[in-house]
Amino acid sequence: MKRVEVGIVTFGPVKVETAFTSASTFYPPTLQSQSDTPTGGAITQALNMVEERKRDYRANGISYYRPWVFLITDGKPTDAWSNAADAIREGEASKKLAFFAIGVQGADMDTLRKISVREPLSLQGLKFRELCRGRPEPGSKVTM
Prior knowledge:
The two termini are 25 Å apart. A hairpin with a 4-residue loop joins strand 1 (5-10) and strand 2. Helix content is 32%, strand content 19%. The chain is globular. The chain has 144 residues and is of the alpha/beta class. The chain has one domain: Rossmann fold, CATH 3.40.50. It contains four helices and five strands; from the N terminus they run ββαβαβαβα.
């Protein structure tokens, strides 16, 4: 808990729902699915948040681990996402971040495969807690 911070970006429209906060003070908001799924915009917003947070850490002499970014979606992108996918690939290759795509029921898993370096994870129902008990390793596939 001392090393985990959580930030949430929602999309449809893209919005910073929760700025970074420590795990010990994080209270999960109730989220509602929207009709739009601007995945590319949401990924870009999240990656920018992570880079800004890393800049803050560096400016204050605080060390940090490689950030994990999770995309959880139940739909198909409704905007251009290829630039975001390129940023994910570059971030993964340079070890700047670890990106995990998670599709819940109704998600376009084929597109998630094109966005993510790792095989997307399939999450059914409300089994996110079970997903987080394990630590997704690069290249792992978890189906629930």
